[in-house]
Design a protein that fits this description.
alpha/beta; Leucine-rich repeat, LRR (right-handed beta-alpha superhelix); Phosphorylase Kinase, domain 1; 26-stranded mixed β-sheet; five-stranded parallel β-sheet; binds 2-acetamido-2-deoxy-beta-D-glucopyranose; serine/threonine-protein kinase; Leu-rich_rpt; LRR_dom_sf; kinase
Length: 917
């Protein structure tokens, strides 16, 4: 009894003691303890140095307290790589009793979101930012945050949150009424995600972003009467445009990059407060609807199927409209003059439509705020009048691929306050000379005048454009020399002057332009030696000097160009030997320099007067149809055309991918060092004076697809090592002094005899058998069976359209030139997105019926192959499924497939374009 009393007394005393202590001391102490426990859970606690036990937490880095209570009210530890699981965040931070705001943006937090049952979340926590972490797990983890009753704003952008089918039956986010929820850039998939998220209703929601997920399904926001900001762009929606009900609050609506369709005008008609509307890249069709324009500042309707004129009702948005993008539709007619009332307009993009008439210069001049004007890829005619020069606010002017003619105004950039940075006039019909007054445009970074009919010389005054990065003047009729003054432009990155009538030499000052990445001077009348100092251009990635009159040796210094992947010197008078130094960078090239440049590659037809393997050309802003203009003044017919954007993907281990030295006077032997270029795809050394043996090392070029050593004086045997070149699809060894038996096996079974003609000593398939003196009868039998196999493989090849092009890094997707009737072939209508296997990702392949696949086959087993159809291959590889992927052999993915007869084959998937002209 005594003891009991004592115990009771003691505890009473204790309680009263606690009551009488100043409140902040113990509770702040509790905050400190929580924070210290959190610190202890980090893998690197030293990041929070001044978080110490027994200290006032209000002095801790990133911690803020209420002034009156001294309780922790806000924590911001963004961009500190805390590196911990979500669990300590929930246990020690979310439970801080007075916490209102917690920001752990980009703090390297992983694990899944869940609030531990039994703990008590701060009842005043309203703001939580966990964006840019590695949080995973499912959306339903968010539901456990209903323990935090005051949570209003939650940012989970840039994590790996998923949504699984199982969750469809759960109670969703009931109990949570967010005002702001940002789930952008996660891994949320499926058609039930939006109903799940909105299960509590939509009364409170003001801001919702699901951008960059794969959400689909029908969605309805008509009950979200407070919704101000909605971004569902970059998802998989393919339904009709959602309903927004009365839409009283909506200011920002971005539904771009989906497949929405339907009546846009009706769906958003009531959204009177709409400030930004972005429906870019959807399937809206018909005439542009009447839109709520009262508050509209930014309107993007590009990449849809809108037809008809630019409607006059759009002008109701002026003068408030700042941005108008109608590009890539099918709009016709002319630009209405009432657009002149859009005096605040800064960006006006109507490119890639079918608009006609003269350039609406007077209307454009009234748009006095205009900074970016893009009228490219339309059918505007007439001239570019000098009065256009009065537009001094303009920074970027793109008139490429229209039908403009007359001369380029000399008055451009007349005023001292001009701001022009980009001038794109390529692919028009401009005549006259390149005005030397363009040097007034002192801020110019891009000057594209290619594909016109310009005459005269390149003005040396352009050398004063110190900011200039692109000087692209190819396919004109310019003559005279390349002005040495151009080499004062230190910023220069691309110098593209092909297909002119230029004479003289490459100015030696070129080595001063150390930012040069792409030099293309082919098809001129340039001569002199290639300056040795060109090796100082460390960023030089593409050098094309073909079809000129350069002489002397190939400068060994070129081997110092640490980024060179494309070297085309064909059809000059170069002599001397192939310098082994050229291959010095093999295995070390890390090309990231040249990215996103549009190009075409024209594969030559191999006719007598057509030299070189093919032509790589800069192609920004030029219509493909216009290529016929090249064939009109060039002896070559192109057998195939490929176009894409450059995107090299080496990882410090690259090598040259294209080397064409044909039609020169090179002598000596082929250096063994050539074998170091493990990514080389095209090697063309034909039509020189090369002698000696073919080096064994050539067998190390495992990525090689096209090899031409023809018309030299090579002797000895074809190295057996070459049978290992499993991707080789074209070979030409004709007109040499080679001897011995053509190697057996590998791709050699597929080559025809013209590849080996005129070598007095060569024998064996596909040439006549080697002399019976050397062949035993068993050997003959063996050869017979090989021949049968070869012809079978040959028929497979014919059936499947062999050979192809696919450049690693500079990957080339087929483009068809002549509009051809789309073949009804559903088997070809597949979409293969190689980004889904990121280790081999270098491209996205879109294959349509027009773009046939090319496939080369190599048997794993030595069974002869049957004739296969494309459908057989789709089936055998399970639609080129990742599971069948066995490698990405340099330039294309290789799949293993089991055919119906049980044989196993390797299939290299490439893209092919059938003959165009
Ligand atoms: C982020 O966390 C992971 C483990 O989850 C760790 O491997 C990585 O090094 C951390 N990153 C940084 C920048 O601390
Ligand atoms: C969410 O976080 C991301 C990345 O930190 C940020 O870009 C975005 O603006 C945030 N969302 C909101 C609504 O603040
Ligand atoms: C509109 O959406 C497209 C595609 O998602 C995007 O590239 C563009 O920047 C957006 N424009 C504006 C003004 O938000
Ligand atoms: C564009 O419109 C014209 C006439 O309205 C039509 O003939 C043509 O097929 C359309 N083109 C596309 C790509 O929709
Ligand atoms: C552009 O319009 C003309 C005539 O109006 C038509 O012949 C042509 O096919 C159209 N081009 C496209 C790409 O729709
Ligand atoms: C390269 O530039 C330097 C000064 O920047 C100049 O002295 C030199 O003459 C230039 N070289 C050539 C070959 O023009
Ligand atoms: C290369 O040609 C030049 C003249 O163009 C000549 O002077 C030189 O001797 C030649 N070199 C070789 C190795 O043939």
């Amino acid at each position: 009894m005594k003891t009991h009393f004592f115990v009771l007394l003691l505890s009473l005393t204790f309680l009263s003691l606690q009551d009488s202590t100043p409140p902040f001391f113990t509770s702040a102490n509790r905050d400190t303890q929580n924070l210290i426990s959190f610190k202890a859970a980090l893998s690197n606690p030293s990041l929070l140095q001044n978080w110490l036990p027994n200290q006032n937490p209000c002095t801790f880095t990133g911690v803020e307290c209420h002034e009156t209570t001294n309780r922790v009210s806000s924590i911001g530890l963004g961009n500190i790589p805390l590196t911990c699981d979500f669990h300590p965040v929930a246990t020690f931070l979310l439970t801080l009793e007075s916490l209102e705001s917690l920001s752990l943006k980009s703090a390297n937090i992983s694990g899944s979101i869940s609030f531990p049952p039994g703990s008590k979340c701060s009842s005043v926590l309203s703001y939580l930012d966990l964006s840019q972490n590695s949080l995973s797990g499912s959306v339903s983890g968010i539901a456990t945050l209903r323990s935090c009753p005051a949570l209003k704003s939650f940012n989970l952008s840039g994590n790996s949150i998923e949504f699984s089918v199982l969750e469809e039956k759960s109670s969703g986010l009931r109990g949570l009424s967010f005002e702001l929820l940002d789930l952008s850039f996660n891994k949320i998939v499926g058609s039930n995600a939006v109903p799940f998220i909105l299960s509590e209703g939509c009364n409170e929601l003001k801001h919702l972003s699901l951008k960059g997920n794969k959400v689909s399904g029908d969605i309805d926001f008509s009950s979200c009467k407070n919704l101000q900001y909605l971004d569902v762009s970059e998802n998989n929606f393919s339904s009709s445009v959602p309903s927004f009900g009365k839409c009283l609050a909506l200011e920002h609506l971005d539904i771009s990059a989906n497949k929405f369709h339907g009546d846009l005008g009706h769906a958003i008609g009531g959204c009177a407060k709409l400030n930004l509307l972005n429906v870019t890249s959807n399937n809206f069709s018909g005439p542009i609807p009447v839109l709520p324009t009262a508050s509209l500042q930014s309107l993007s309707l590009g990449g849809n199927l809108f037809v008809g004129d630019i409607p006059l009702h759009l002008m109701d948005a002026c003068p408030g409209l700042v941005m108008l993008d109608l590009s890539s539709n099918n709009l016709t007619g002319s630009v209405p003059s009432s657009l002149g009332s859009c005096t605040s307009l800064e960006t006006f993009d109507i490119s890639t439509n079918n608009l006609t008439g003269e350039l609406p210069v007077d209307t454009l001049l009234k748009m006095t705020s205009l900074k970016r004007l893009d009228l490219a890829y339309n059918a505007f005619g007439g001239g570019l009048p000098d009065s256009f020069s009065q537009h001094t606010s303009l920074q970027s002017l793109d008139l490429s691929s229209n039908s403009l003619f007359g001369s380029i105004p000399t008055g451009l950039c007349k005023g001292p306050s001009n701001n022009l940075k980009e001038l794109y006039l390529q692919n028009n019909r401009f005549t006259g000379s390149v005005p030397d007054t363009l040097s007034n445009c002192s801020q110019l970074t891009a000057l594209h005048l290619s594909f016109n009919y310009l005459t005269g010389t390149i003005p040396s005054s352009l050398g004063s454009l110190y900011e200039l990065r692109d000087l692209n003047l190819w396919f004109n009729q310019l003559h005279g020399e390349i002005p040495p003054e151009l080499m004062n432009i230190k910023a220069l990155e691309t110098l593209i002057l092909d297909f002119n009538e230029l004479t003289g030499v490459i100015p030696s000052g070129i080595s001063n332009c150390t930012n040069l990445k792409w030099i293309s001077l082919s098809n001129n009348r340039l001569s002199g030696e290639i300056p040795e100092s060109i090796g100082k251009l460390r960023s030089l990635t593409i050098l094309k000097l073909s079809n000129n009159s350069f002489y002397g040796r190939i400068p060994p210094g070129l081997g110092d160009c640490r980024s060179l992947i494309w070297l085309d010197l064909n059809s000059n008078f170069l002599n001397g030997t192939i310098p082994p130094e050229l291959f010095k960078q093999s295995g070390r090239i890390a090309v990231n320099f040249i990215r996103g440049k549009r190009y075409v590659y024209l594969k030559n037809d191999k006719s007598e007067q057509c030299h070189g393997e093919g032509n790589l050309l800069e192609f920004a802003g030029i219509r493909l149809e216009q290529l016929s203009r090249i064939s009109s003044n060039h002896p070559c017919n192109f057998s195939r055309v490929y176009g894409e954007y450059t995107r090299p993907t080496f990882n410090d281990n690259g090598s040259m991918i294209f080397l064409d030295l044909s039609y020169n006077m090179l002598s000596g032997s082929i250096p063994a060092a050539i074998g170091s270029m493990s990514f080389l795809y095209v090697l063309i050394l034909g039509h020189n004076n090369l002698s000696g043996n073919i080096p064994q090392e050539i067998g190390k070029l495992t990525g090689l697809d096209i090899l031409d050593l023809s018309n030299n004086r090579l002797e000895g045997i074809i190295p057996q090592s070459m049978t290992g070149l499993s991707l080789l699809s074209e070979i030409d060894m004709s007109n040499n002094h080679l001897t011995g038996m053509i190697p057996e096996g590998g791709q050699f079974v597929t080559f025809l005899n013209h590849s080996f003609l005129n070598n007095e000593g060569l024998c064996g398939i596909p040439l006549p058998p080697c002399g019976s003196a050397s062949g035993s009868s068993s050997n003959l039998g063996h050869q017979k069976s090989r021949r049968r196999q070869a012809s079978l493989a040959g028929s497979v090849a014919m059936g499947l359209l062999f050979s192809l092009f696919c450049i690693f890094g500079l990957l080339i997707v087929a483009v068809e030139m002549k509009k051809r009737k789309k073949k009804k072939d559903s088997a070809l209508d597949i979409y293969i997105d190689s980004r889904s296997h990121s280790d081999t990702a270098n491209t996205a392949w879109k294959l349509t019926g027009r773009e046939a696949l090319s496939i080369s086959l190599t048997t794993f087993e030595s069974k002869p192959l049957r004739k296969l159809t494309f459908a057989d291959l789709i089936e055998a590889t399970n639609g080129f499924h990742n599971d069948s992927l066995i490698g990405s052999g340099g330039f294309g993915d290789v799949y293993k497939a089991e055919l119906k007869d049980g044989s196993i084959v390797a299939i290299k998937k490439l893209i092919h374009i059938s003959e165009i002209w």
